[in-house]
Amino acid sequence: MAGSELALGKTIAKARRRKGWPQRDLAALIDRSESWVSQVERDVIPVNSLDVLRQISDALDISLSDLLAAAPPGPAPVLERQWEVAGGLDQMVRAARVKGAEQPNGGSGGAEVVRGA
Question: Where is each HTH cro/C1-type domain found (predicted)?
Answer without folding.
Answer: 12-67
